[in-house]
Specification:
The complex is a heterodimer of chains A (339) and B (297).
Chain A (H helix, E strand, L loop, with lengths): L3 H6 L5 H29 L4 H25 L8 H17 L3 H23 L4 H20 L10 E2 L5 E3 L4 E3 L3 H24 L1 H11 L11 H27 L1 E2 L6 H14 L5 H20 L3 H15 L3 H18 L1
Helix pairs in contact in A: 2-7, 2-11, 2-13, 3-7, 3-9, 3-10, 3-11, 4-5, 4-9, 5-9, 7-9, 8-9, 10-11, 10-13, 11-12
Chain B lengths: L1 H39 L6 H17 L4 H27 L5 H24 L13 E4 L2 E4 H23 L1 H11 L1 H6 L4 H27 L5 H16 L4 H21 L5 H15 L12
Antiparallel strand pairs in B: 1-2
Helix pairs in contact in B: 1-5, 1-8, 1-9, 1-10, 2-3, 2-4, 2-8, 2-9, 3-8, 5-6, 9-10, 9-11, 10-11
Classes of the chains: A mainly alpha (339), B mainly alpha (297).
Chain lengths: 339, 297
């Protein structure tokens, strides 16, 4: 007879852990490619492409936050730009007063936790279609409010955000250094990815996945769907806000467009083409979308037609996005090496 | 007493009547949305773009010399096959995916993006305004009301009444309600469910386009016109109860009145936040909305 304890001691290789490991591999490849890109950028003394790539990474962070909700909890947020914009505006306001990277990030974090929790009190009651429309409405209201507030620069936004030195402990990088700030952004996004990936491996993460699979059964297992949904919502708000906080450092301004529906919509397109529920898909998706926009945008100003068509094709033919094509292959590879 | 009466006559009444014509407009757009949701369980994010398509078709055909009265019939008829093809070609493909709400929402969101950009390519990004088909104004209760707005209110009421009659009193309506209530049972009783689905979707699209034709002379025509209107329409559908015709009518009229009257007190830019607060209040107290779903009464 087998000793049951050996079953417990053996590291459990369940499907979800394996999928997450495959995502880790994909993100490791992503980081390696990004580092190579930065090295080439420095070697040829490029500014434009490095800054474009930095912006792509920042929007990948927003997409990551959409994936937390859509991929793991099954909730489609149509208003994630609210927190992206909140982070950006708070960061800009702080930077205008104190030129400190860490103060700006901390302020954005605090603001997103507070606003996320307050809005979460409305949002956690609803799911499905209602969730989508309430988040849409919240972002719409916030965008209108910012657009009409003179203290926040109204339709012009806040301009003239100073260059900020990023003190890393072992050295300082200026936010206008293309390669340096690209690496900082890459670092922030990877840390956000790792933090989210870690949380999803905890029992909390499993409750979220259970919510997506069958919400009615979750209370019978002793977990509160609403509490988990609220936590996921605040987590997504923080991830979006911290990504947004990097935006004014890169561009030197913030505008109400960051809060508009097109920003939320782009993040959704990013996640769906990259791969819903993979986390890595958000990172790849951000880069793919930026490349597509620049390439198609150089042929025609109406690149949204092509992107919209590709997006519809992804929804119909690739429900798991590009990562859905690649990740099972890596999972198989990992399972073979685990044996 | 006199200043009070003056306030009613010169401030309150015009505001309420303007609100009423907006209300009828919103109800027209929301009607198609709520019918599509009630029957197909699909959130049509592209609804606003179908509304814009209707307005642009009216603009283009009107410029080609087609009479406005003919447009009211012609444009919805043109949109029916388009809606039918969209349902058959796109929505049916993902209809049976595990998360229908999210998948169809994403798909129609993409479609809306393509249509909006397509309108920009074909008609240019600028705002255009078709001529008002009925000019002049009448005095109603001491309030000067443009004839066209009066016409809009009357026609809107007639359309809503006609749709409600068709859905609730005719054999076709019964088929639609049966399919909404229990798809499998309806199918086994010989209802061609998938064709009913496609035709109902097409009907909802045609209604959106009809709203576009009617509203173009008032609100002008521009590529993003659908996006600006759809938030209000969605709010109306949520507050009234997703899939309820009666709910859409009542919520549409009440919400636009609240918005119209509130703009007397606070700046009109806060109209959207006020509407949103109403939606949140309703959702908190009655998450399913004020009225029940189509076929589930």
């Amino acid at each position: 007879m087998r000793d049951p304890s050996t079953v417990l001691v053996r590291p459990v290789q369940d499907r979800l852990t394996l999928a997450m490991r495959a995502s880790h591999v994909l993100v490791a490849i992503f980081v390696a490619l990004a580092l190579a890109f930065a090295a080439i950028g420095v070697a040829i003394d490029d500014t434009f492409y490095l800054r474009l790539a930095t912006e792509a990474l920042i929007f990948s962070g927003l997409a990551l936050s959409v994936d937390i909700l859509l991929g793991y909890t099954g909730l489609l947020s149509l208003g994630q730009a609210l927190y992206f914009g909140l982070g950006a505006y708070v960061s800009a306001l702080v930077l205008q007063r104190v030129p400190s990277f860490w103060a700006a990030m901390a302020a954005a974090l605090v603001a997103c936790v507070i606003v996320g929790a307050l809005a979460g009190l409305i949002v956690y009651r609803v799911r499905g279609v209602y969730f989508a429309l309430v988040t849409f409405g919240l972002a719409q209201v916030a965008a209108k409010a910012v657009y009409n507030t003179r203290e926040l620069g109204a339709s012009d936004g806040l301009i003239g955000i100073p260059v900020v030195p990023v003190d890393l402990g072992f050295g300082t990088v200026q936010s206008n250094a293309p390669a340096g700030f690209f690496l900082i952004t890459l670092g922030v996004i990877v840390v956000l990815y790792l933090a989210v990936a870690y949380l999803f491996e905890t029992p909390f993460g499993r409750v979220l996945i259970a919510l997506r699979a069958n919400e009615r059964r979750v209370p019978f297992l002793g977990y509160s769907p609403r509490a988990a949904r609220l936590a996921a919502y605040v987590l997504a708000a923080v991830v979006a806000g911290l990504s947004g906080a990097l935006y004014p450092m890169l561009r030197g301004f913030v505008s109400p467009e960051l809060l508009f529906f097109s920003t939320s919509g782009n993040a959704i397109i990013t996640v769906v083409t990259g791969g819903v529920g993979t986390l890595a898909g958000a990172l790849y998706g951000g880069v793919i979308l930026t490349v597509l926009k620049s390439v198609i945008g150089s042929w025609t100003p109406h690149h949204l037609v092509v992107i919209g068509l590709l997006f519809m094709a992804a929804v119909i033919f690739l429900p798991k996005g590009l990562m859905g094509l690649v990740r099972p292959w890596i999972e198989r590879l990992l399972r073979r090496t685990a044996r | 007493m006199a200043p009070f009466l003056d306030y009613i006559q010169f401030v309150l009444a015009p505001q309420m009547i303007t609100g009423l014509s907006l209300g009828v407009a919103v109800v027209l757009v929301a009607l198609g949305l709520t019918i599509i949701f009630g029957l197909l369980d699909v959130i049509n994010m592209a609804h606003g773009e179908f509304y814009a398509m209707g307005a642009y078709l009216a603009l283009a055909l009107g410029a080609a010399g087609v009479n406005f009265w003919l447009l009211l019939v012609l444009v919805p008829l043109i949109m029916v096959p388009i809606g039918y093809v969209v349902e058959r070609g796109l929505i049916q493909r993902v209809f049976n995916s595990p998360d229908r709400h999210v998948t169809t929402l994403l798909l129609t969101f993409g479609l809306g993006l393509v249509v909006e950009e397509g309108l920009k390519i074909v008609f240019g990004p600028n705002t255009q305004r078709p001529p008002t088909p009925i000019s002049g104004a009448v005095e109603v209760l001491g309030v000067l009301l443009p004839n066209y707005r009066l016409f809009l209110i009357v026609v809107g009421v007639a359309i809503v009444a006609a749709v409600a009659l068709v859905v609730n009193k005719t054999r076709y309506g019964a088929i639609v309600r049966a399919a909404a209530y229990d798809r499998n049972m309806a199918a086994s009783l010989g209802v061609p469910v998938s064709r009913v689905f496609a035709l109902t979707f097409a009907f909802g699209v045609a209604l959106a386009a009809l709203a576009g034709v009617l509203l173009a002379p008032i609100y002008s025509v521009f590529p993003t016109m659908g996006r600006d209107f759809i938030f209000l329409a969605f709010t109306v559908v949520i507050v009234g109860g997703m899939g309820s015709i009666m709910g859409a009518v009542i919520a549409g009229l009440v919400i636009t009145q609240i918005q119209a009257l509130a703009s007397l007190i606070v700046s009109p830019v806060w109209g959207d936040p006020i509407v949103f607060s109403v939606m949140v209040l309703v959702l908190v107290m009655r998450p399913q909305g004020l009225f029940g779903r189509l076929g589930h009464a």
